[in-house]
Amino acid sequence: TSVPSLASSDGHGFLQCLREKMPSELVYTQSSSNFTDVLFSSIKNPKFFTTATVSPRLCIVTPGDASHVQAAVVCGRRQGVRLRVRSGGHDYEGLSYRSVRPSEVFAVVDLGASLLAVRVDRIESTAWVESGATIGELYYAIARNDSRVAFPAGECPTVGVGGHFSGGGIGMMTRKHGLAVDKIVDAKMVNANGELLDRAGMGEDLFWAIRGGGGGSFGIVLSWKVQLVQVPPTVTVFNIGRMVDQGAVDILTRWQHIAPSLPSDLTIRVLVQQGQQALFQALYFGTCGALVATMGEQFPELGMTSADCQQMTWLQSAATPFLSFASNGTLEEVLLDRTAWTSAFTKAKSDYVLRAIPKAAWKEIFSRWFGMDGAGDIILEPHGGFMDSVPAAARPYPHRNGVLYVIQYIAYWQQQGDGGAAAKSWIGGLYDFMGQHVSTNPRRAYVNFRDLDIGQNDDDGTFESGKVWGERYFVGNYRRLAAVKAGVDPTNYFRNEQSIPPFMETT
Ligand code: FDA
């Protein structure tokens, strides 16, 4: 055919095509004076701020409306140029703006610059949110004038809606209302033919796939219609730290049995930190008095009292990044600040726990792994409640009934020093050690905690090569995702190191 191969394009035709179809100020080439500022604007992991990072060699497109996104796809297909799409830039492996392959020539479509609107329909109790908005902006728009409505998604306000909704969306309301993707009722996306589709136009298979099958595989989702959820006007939170010499090992061992089966109005997650401390962080849909009574009955080992309670609106609870409950600043400053910044380099991994980990193992985790140089954090997020009621095939996210909690491991380091050797060795060693205690066959992982160590597509992007990582993120849903992909993008135009490959009959 006359379509150039993706490998052979030099990009001139692509840039020319873009110039014909959209205002030139929306296209930043390497020669634009602010190219680097735009590229770095939402990189959230500073380890990718380096000249070694394989960045978009051709340009960054910052679309102002759907027609610009369609134009980028049409030009990309016609001229043989691949696109990566970025919303909030939080991908742990930077796949929204970098390639692992040094020779890859690609452009980035960055929705975080202009496609940020949130429109709330109070009568219907729904909202349309554009992918470039952050979840903090979504929460603020929904709840600033009405403390009785909310949306269940992640815990850090700067996370982008586009990538987050594409992969699931776990947060403090997951046990009560499910994942973000459990409350999405419509979406608008541009497919690999440059067509703009809503739910009716894309059909139920593709609509299923984009709600959790991971970003960057099926097209560019422009906006999402979400169902809001009801919350009480006042919620109660607590943040209780226990050191090893205060019984952290016993309390945490017990937490595993209790947290997934608590009433779904109460979520208690745990942050285990260097210094051998376990921080128990809770969100409760009720008053302090009722929470103290529930904790006395269900989890007396934690020793929670009314002095630990903080009562606030749901929106205030969402404005406490990582639930530290110590954040400074107004709601607007915290929820709407896109620049919130970490100077640490990070590496993350994840696991799912289906059977409580024995006390002896927790003892070793604290004494050996959290006593070590380079130790970072682990975050334990309970499932159960609403999550148990959703069949594993209802959405691409398969980790439902029977999962006690998900573990996120995070290692941190600074640019100076040992280049992260101690932190990397810590996270790798701990992950190996945990293998005996977590899910197996496959050892599961959460696609939004992207981890390229668990496998990458081969150069041909085959179904078989994708199985290695795909069945770990999606278990039995990987095959259906690949079949949907074959139907909507058979030439595998939207592709990255961990995008869903098309499942062809011959594979
Ligand atoms: P980014 O723009 O980097 O995109 C991520 C992936 O999705 C890329 O592959 C990208 O190409 C693709 N993509 C982006 N926009 C798309 C679109 N519009 N259409 C199609 N594909 C698109 N997770 C969680 O469940 N709960 C939590 O509480 C947190 N908290 C958290 C805190 C911090 C500080 C970080 C760095 C990450 C999290 N996460 C999280 C993980 C987060 O959900 C995950 O990184 C999301 O993919 C981020 O979405 P962004 O749009 O910001 O990323």
Provide key terms for this protein.
507 residues; alpha+beta; Uridine Diphospho-n-acetylenolpyruvylglucosamine Reductase, domain 2; Uridine Diphospho-n-acetylenolpyruvylglucosamine Reductase, domain 3; Vanillyl-alcohol Oxidase, Chain A, domain 3; seven-stranded antiparallel beta sheet; five-stranded antiparallel beta sheet; 15 helices; 28% helix; binds dihydroflavine-adenine dinucleotide
Cofactors, ions and other ligands in the entry: dihydroflavine-adenine dinucleotide
Category from helices, strands and their pairing: alpha+beta
Estimated helix fraction: 25-40%
CATH topology of the largest domain: Vanillyl-alcohol Oxidase, Chain A, domain 3
The coarse overall form would be globular
On the 0 to 100 scale, the average pLDDT is: 94
Unreliable segments (pLDDT under 50, ≥5 consecutive)? Answer: none
**CATH class descriptor name of the largest domain:** Alpha Beta
> In the CATH hierarchy, what is the architecture of the largest domain at level 2?
3-Layer(aba) Sandwich
What Rg do the Cα atoms give? Answer: 22 Å
Reported for the largest beta sheet, the result is: 7 strands, antiparallel
Q: Would you report the number of β strands? A: 18
The number of distinct helices, counting runs of at least 4 residues, comes to 15
Distance between the termini: 24 Å
Tell me the domain tally: 3
Strand content is 15-25%
Strand order within the widest beta sheet: 15-12-14-13-17-18-16
